[in-house]
Amino acid sequence: MIDVSFQQDQFEVVPTLVQPALVDVLKTRVKSDMKTSSSPLVLPPVHTLPIHEMLQAQHQSFDPESEDAEAENAFFVADLGEVYRQHLRWKALLPRIEPFFAMKCNPDPMVLRLLASLGVGFDCASKNEIQTVLDLGTVHPNRIIYANPCKQNAFVQYARRNSVMMMTFDNAEELHKIKRFHPDAHLVLRILTDDSKSLCKLGLKFGAPLDTTGYLLATARELGLNVIGVSFHVGSGCFDANAFGEAVVRARRVFDQATEHGYHFRFLDVGGGFPSAHVTDGITFEKVAAILGSTVDALFGPEVRVIAEPGRYYVGSAFTLATQVIARRTIVHDVAAQDKEEEEGKEDKEQPAHMYYINDGMYGSFNCIMFDHQVCEPQVLLKDGAFAYKQEVDGERGMASVWGPTCDSIDCISTRARLPLMETGDWMYFENMGAYTITAASQFNGFRRSEVLYTTTEPEVVLHL
Ligand SMILES: *Cc1c(COP(=O)(O)O)cnc(C)c1O
């Protein structure tokens, strides 16, 4: 291969083997990674203001004369008090079940810190997630479950070296891998449950069907592995509270089957899928807790330790995103065609009259629309120089569509939103943006991830940080 480089201000083709150069590049990258992970963490300030004051204060800090082109970027306000309230609610309604936060949902460093100090455990799915939790310095490895049934060899070794013992599996190949790289692990058999009533059907990818669990337990026995219990996940965004009850019944069957294979299970992991606090009708956390708590108590004695892996439950309602309207396009409708449609008796469905472009989108925080099937509703934050957080806004509302800042047409946040007429420079906000948003945001097209500002509406949180 040929490496093309600049030499002494002129183009020159220098034939070299790329391979050694590449190795050097990779080596230096590894070194600089190590440097950043061991540098001391500087914590951001946590305020004690209500959300609307945070939004207002941040906006007022913008200097219109500033030469910083990033000054008016979209931003999040995270209310750590809401995370804390969710924790208290969990403890009140599911006192027997220990929560292990599924950090893929939102690995925000302050959220992790708060949950760690509240004694919550962590569901990690990769080496980096495990490392992030251990780097907090306050979490014992026995408060981590490596809940990914299909793991990279080196990650299993990493778990062993760092004394992370609990891990899930759902296939025989994984058992052989664990035998080789972490033979003393405490294994949890992830079973398949009915996820047809969930938005994100995790059963497509993971979970042992019940007609395979006997074989898996026999294999584990032969390998001399320590299987301690069962886990499941009813699917993320579950909208049927009975799904939890049915899954616990299945888990009971596998507990009984395990006894036939010489195991004595004492561990049940009921997974994630718990609704966030903003879900107030349909399947609420109260309903899930009532069904789950009573089924667990009916089928499992006190000798069984029960954990769960809630993700969106903790953070969904805790983050609010503020975005600026960076451009507006007025759609010129073809009046003649519209008249014709009306003549033909077609339903007069109101067409969007404006397209608003805002400074965060599908490739950023709104990736939840694509990956997590979320519906994000824009609300007016600042219009005509006045703040309107949770207030009625004067003026007639019309149909509009809302778009992200990239050049891709998939980058659409809402095709039909009822909004008053807004101008470039006005702001919109979106509530309940804490789950599966920042965590998968990209920098596609050169747009930065939106930064997070912290407040707490529960003063007690400050003591925990
Ligand atoms: C994603 C995931 C969770 C969290 O799901 P939520 O719906 O956010 O509660 C828990 N456990 C596992 C194994 C997951 O993959």
Question: In a few lines, what is going on in this structure?
Answer:
This protein is an alpha/beta fold and 465 residues long. The chain is 32% helix and 23% strand. It has 14 helices and 22 strands.
What does this structure look like?
- Residues 1-9 and 29-39 have low confidence and may be disordered.
- Helices cover 32% and strands 23% of the residues.
- With 465 residues, it is α/β, with parallel strands linked by helices.
- It contains 14 helices and 22 strands.
- Strand 6, helix 5 and strand 7 (144-146) form a beta-alpha-beta unit.
- It is globular and about 75 Å long.
- Bound molecules: pyridoxal-5'-phosphate (PLP).
- The site of pyridoxal-5'-phosphate has 16 residues, from helix 11.
- GO terms for molecular function: ornithine decarboxylase activity.
- Residues 80-316 form the Orn/DAP/Arg decarboxylase 2 N-terminal domain.
- Its EC number is 4.1.1.17.
- Its cofactor is pyridoxal 5'-phosphate.
Helix/strand layout:
Blueprint: E1 3-7, E2 10-14, H1 18-38, E3 46-47, H2 51-60, E4 75-79, H3 80-93, E5 97-102, H4 109-117, E6 121-124, H5 127-135, E7 144-146, H6 153-161, E8 166-169, H7 172-181, E9 186-190, E10 198-200, H8 213-222, E11 226-231, E12 236-238, H9 242-260, E13 267-269, H10 285-299, E14 305-308, H11 312-315, E15 319-330, H12 335-343, E16 354-358, H13 367-371, E17 379-383, E18 386-387, E19 397-403, E20 412-420, E21 427-430, E22 451-455, H14 461-464
Helix pairs in contact: 3-4, 9-10
